What we know:
CATH topology of the largest domain: Rossmann fold
Strand content: 5-15%
CATH superfamily of the largest domain: HUPs
Number of strands: 15
Radius of gyration: 26 Å
Strand order of the largest sheet: 1-6-5-2-3-4
Number of helices: 18
Structural class: alpha/beta
Largest sheet: 6 strands, mixed
Amino acid sequence: MTLQEQIAYLTKGCVDVVRESQLRAKLERAATSGDRLIVKVGFDPTAPDLHLGHTVLLRKMKHFQDLGHRVIFLIGDFTGLIGDPTGRSKTRPPLTREQIEENAETYKKQVFKLLDPESTEVGFNSGWLRALGSEGWIRLAARYNVAQMLERREFRQRYDAGRPIAIHEFLYPLAQAYDSVHLRADVELGGTDQLFNLNVGRDIMPAWDVEPQVVMTTPLLVGLDGTEKMSKSAANYVGITEPPAEMFGKIMSISDELMWSYHALLTDLSLAEIESLSARVASGAAHPKQVKIDLATRIVTDFHSAAAARTAAEAFERRFGRREVPTDADERLVAVPGDGRRLTAIMVDAGLAQSGAAATRVIAQGGVRIDGERVGDRFRVVAADQPPFILQVGRRALRIRPGSAGATASPDGDPADVPGAENAVSARAVKPGGR
């Protein structure tokens, strides 16, 4: 690649590059000297499993590997004891040493699904942070002041609201910064929520006569629900160790709009290739479903194999591609006020979900369809004047007929107090297509 092509490849999908001119200079110097750039990414082992959201950074690490640079997968076994305050409105409970060690071992096995094990260095920051000792930590803390720490949004919000900020939380960005000093990092990668921490590294490195690192951030991957960032707590994630068929099905559940972000962040396609695909879909030359199938195939191939991806695609087509909307599903009349009602509430009332949380989860997992079309919006509202529709949840289906807000249902499930209620039948879930 030319220098400009390298920069385009490395910065694809990035939100912040601080600064691109310095990245260019470092790449030019590396090309002249033959030395590799040191690229550092830190992961605190806060959970045992990784999901596709984590792999946005892993893929960017792979891009540096592709160009021959030295990539360090840094496990924050020491910083995990402190607890990253990023995104927290209160102090994060620190992990135990046992939890950290167990999760770290799992991470080491999972990252090589994407990274090249032969050219990836795995490090643990306890090796140098524990060795700093009391005097070293005092000297490190002297490099930053409280006013600078309060520039961080989470700290400022908690300070202004009178919520506690534990002193040890200030140590987290300093510890992460010292990792860069110790490793003499040329580049540090992180999510957009890590920008403050990464810039602390840039700020303090000159105090140790180390050239400031280039900071590069990637977006936080939006989850299957299309609204919140991918996370286990939001039940909108795709785990990288999930079976191929499950991974494939979840990816197929995302919206047509969201799939372009997934193309940019979860594949090695260039921006020009993605723009070309988007243009073909917009012109009608390509069907969005087929483009999404190709996306799911690429991702499953990365984490399993090409054969597993083909099998998953075939299974998906058998299960969903030729599914017909059932015509003989029993009907259920539900109460819908004039301003509409959440689909999740209707699912609970119709006996298709045990609770609102359960309804939200099954939508996030791609298991809900309206008239054969997959529902991706967990906040979807059904209008009072919406015509009857077939609501499918997994293998169960009902014809839902919105009624007035005063509709009620008898204990056995028959609607009452609504004109025409006598024509409705009890809610009995049937398999799609009557099969």
